[in-house]
Amino acid sequence: MGEKDHDSSSSSFKEAAQRLDHRGWNEQQYLEQYDVSEFERPSVTADMLIFTILDEQQDNYRKLPEKSLHLMMVQRGEHPYLGWWALPGGFVAMNESLDEAAARELHSETGLDGIYMEQLYTWGAVDRDPRTRVISTAYMALADSTRQQIQAGDDAQDARWFKLGYRVLQEKKVHIEGGCRLERDMQVELVHQDIRLSGTVRVTRTYRGTLNGEQWQVLSSDGIAFDHVQMIAYGLERLRSKIEYTDIAFNLMPPLFTLSALQQVYEIVLGKELLAPAFRRKMAPRVIATNEYTKDAGHRPSQLYRYRPEWEV
Amino acid sequence: MGEKDHDSSSSSFKEAAQRLDHRGWNEQQYLEQYDVSEFERPSVTADMLIFTILDEQQDNYRKLPEKSLHLMMVQRGEHPYLGWWALPGGFVAMNESLDEAAARELHSETGLDGIYMEQLYTWGAVDRDPRTRVISTAYMALADSTRQQIQAGDDAQDARWFKLGYRVLQEKKVHIEGGCRLERDMQVELVHQDIRLSGTVRVTRTYRGTLNGEQWQVLSSDGIAFDHVQMIAYGLERLRSKIEYTDIAFNLMPPLFTLSALQQVYEIVLGKELLAPAFRRKMAPRVIATNEYTKDAGHRPSQLYRYRPEWEV
DNA sequence: CAAATAGTGTCTATAAGACAATATCTC
DNA sequence: GAGATATTGTCTTATAGACACTATTTG
């Protein structure tokens, strides 16, 4: 899961360690006098965006169940943001890597292990957290809803699946000297039963000649703790763009699925309808047909497929 | 440059701050007793990959100057890795954001400001740094070589431009229970005059059904400090993939350039030759022709173009 | 049979790859 | 004219979009 170990067993590294610095110390002497408490340090947390696709209840027996994207949120039992909802996450311990901390959070909230996980972004504004300086690395995990543990998480403590919706509120182009600024406001909405959370994020891209960089900021947040709205918005963007050029979507599918269900997942994430023939053509090399079919569907049954991993090709 | 501010001026946030927690405290009371030194904290650094394209000297007056990708490295004057070369970088201060720290490093090493910068990845293995626990966020910046400051950096203190080469050493597929593991070893080589640094990185992708995640590790490092080899390899991968679907390459170009020079840059980054007609067709909507031409070239002069920013379309 | 989804065929438009051919400069 | 790069034209191939049409199940 992206853990980056380091092997420093190079022959000439030992040589570098024997060299003397400007105080005449070799590396060992330097490390012995190194004062860890010399500088004030920030806290570091790992926060987890856990996405899954869940079915909505459906009254018409003929229609396919509508699916939607869900995100795991945890209600805060402590200050700050007491009672508000936050992404599962916590401080990185000194004896665990960043990835291990993220995996730990994932496991403790959902019971899941070994599912798809990737690092998203590290948020480092000075006053992100009222307690103290906190730098947070956001991760994204994708779970397939049929996993046993997923359902279990639902009635555990304060973790809940929220139905996730988003839309672009406005796009604005501001001309500045030597270029322009593009602002896009994006609204995120989270719903679990009668709990409704929302927030707005502004992404500003500054162009001077070429793109210089982008800046994210929280415009408003209702019930979503810290700057987690922008982590969610950022994660959604990553998911949307990666579903177009990777096989990431199959991590949201059970082992056997219909092509219609797969198309639904693409449509939900991309937020637009796709044409079935083109979709099937594009997916053909990525799936393997089985001899099984859905049944009792109220309409023509559908063939079940499984994923053909890239490495099997 | 990706700074993520937070505005918590929501009406119901004030309400949350007045709520009492399990000890009967409101937020203010909680914050007053919050002990910052309760937990041991890691250090955080921001490290900068600064890429540029530089010309090689050329003896044949008729041929175009060969270009190549260069990366800024700094020689370490302190333990650990004394005398080895590292990416420009340093500890994040308590009163600056992560992005500000990265921009500060960029400026102090090259004198550059306001150029393209993006966050790459955060490296969080436990023993990355022999001094203490250090978590490092890597950034990538792109500079166009004609900038005045770039040349200046070259004779400043211990910062140098290294010509950057890379190649895939081997790709291996290992079958494991329930899936497979794909290992790819990549070699990075840095050359400045008679200084030659190199290192090898292994990227392991584990598949169990679908892709679970990828793991990076340093196999060897000769003259490159810490785990900076893998930061470089990661940055190269990001640059290579983003040049295909964004306009990122124009950040490496001067304001006026020929299509051949632009093509050279694409070829260097992608590590393969491109067909000129297809390349020109694809670039046509992204550039604007000027009335200027190159001259004294020893061959047919070439028309100069400038970038047409996305937002102008 | 109606309702609903599953799945196929095909025409068109657009983009990418390959390569030949022509243009224009300097020494 | 030779050598080098610049630039255009065109044929082929692959892919994506649009839409009509056929197939199969259940109440």
Automatic annotation (TrEMBL), chains A, B:
Coiled coil: none annotated. Residues 40-187 form the Nudix hydrolase domain. PROSITE patterns: NUDIX. CDD domains: NUDIX_NadM_like. It holds the Pfam family WHD_NrtR. Gene3D superfamilies: Nucleoside Triphosphate Pyrophosphohydrolase, Winged helix-like DNA-binding domain superfamily/Winged helix DNA-binding domain. PANTHER family: ADP-RIBOSE PYROPHOSPHATASE, SLR1690 PROTEIN. This is NUDIX domain-containing protein. It comes from Paenibacillus wenxiniae.
